[in-house]
Amino acid sequence: MAPRLRLAAPLLLVSVALLLTVVASDDDDGGGDYAHCEGVVKGWAGSVADEEEDNDGGDTLSLRDLLFFLHIPRTGGRTYFHCFLKKLYTNAEECPRSYDKLRFDPSHPDCKLVVSHDDYSFMSKLPSERTSVVTILRNPVDRVFSTYEFSVEVAARFLVHPNLTSAKLMTSRLLTKSRAVSTLDIWPWKYLVPWMREDLFARRDARRIAKVRSSHRINAYDVEDMVMPLHQYIDDPVAHEIIHNGATFQITGLTNNSYFNGAHEVRHCVRKHPDLGRFVLEVAKSRLDRMLYVGLTEDHEESARLFAHMVGAQVLFQSGAANLDIKEDQPIGNDSHSSTLDPEDEETNEHLNSTRGLQNNRALSADTTKDDHPKGNMTVGKLMEAYEGCISKLRKSQSNRRKVSLKMVEEANFSKEARRQVPEAILEQIISLNNLDMELYEHAKKIFTQEHLMLNAQHSMPDTKGWIETVCSSWSCSPWKVTLLGLGVTISIVLIALALTTRRRTFKLKV
Predict the structure, then answer these.
(1) CA separation for the pair 459, 47 (Å, rounded)
(2) Phi, psi of 136 (to 5 degrees)
């Protein structure tokens, strides 16, 4: 026995040595990987800072030749497109397939408007020195909820078909025949909807095989035998790739839809080493600071008012369509309740999954893009009035369509009340998974407050319409230049008055 032990001892020592070598090697690789990732992320952030410093056009609050609406999904941007921008820009001024086709050539000579889910890297295709960027941010937790709900809503429309193969064939035929653009063409839904659609069919097939009906659940976000539960949805690799910290990655141009070839590596490094996210976050904050306008979904009324004055007024000035009305808008109607479309009911007119859907889509498009106030006679006040009327129509049409879509998964009855029943642990997980977006949203709120204060300062000025017309007829001005000029004139008058008063007192003393 002793000789065997003596032989086994060296083998054991060799095994331990090999194991320690492997562990050490893994540690070295890990350290090397972090150093590599740190270099990649820092290098990208540095190059972005240098590039944007070189392209700094000065006044970021003045509208430039081209407006790029960077639409972060589930923030209400579709409403702004239909109810604001369609009133301000003609079809000829929209870049070709501006909203519904993400990969297009914006070199058209009359192109003045780009509205897209493309990320910030799309600026590489635009004349950056002549482009103003606007966007809207939303509370990240609500945005994740809304993304989940919308994925289910759109995917559920396919359940009218007997099986997944039939659904794909019919959709392909309809889209080919109509040459329309489907949600399946648009990022990020071209990834999220097929993923959810396949899951819905798999769960329906499983219920049929088991010959059972889904039982009623208290929590609409955990109807497991009918719909992918929310807790499973947020923990899936697809969600990590596309949804979590999506606003930060979109504003930094690092989504999986990016025009920047190195986006995947930077994104991978940030996810693998979360502390490197601080470099990405700083780039996102800096870009928000440079934007013409930043809105908040949660404060729709004030966001719309700011957009009308900060963006709409300048579009009207540049087009020569109207004189700037910087007075406070009067309340429209007697209803104090906001007529702004609920964020949960957004964007449902994008989808053409059936003949009936196509007809509804055309009707909705014609209804909401109708120009009730010709651009040649438009003011900020009339723009807001047109926006309110458009929103009312969108609310009715899209709310009805949402209800019809979710009938196929009726036990997943999503609502704000149902959201409150989601366990706190899931909410905390969403916050943790979207830590960059949470901090970016707080930064956006600070910018929004500054915009609000600037607009209030502008409204507190006396009636200056006459001299504004005179100045702006020969000077390319924005509302903010007008405000600064007005303040300067006011201060000058006060100083002159003080000087004259002092001189008179001095003269009296001499006498």
Answers:
(1) 40
(2) -130, 135
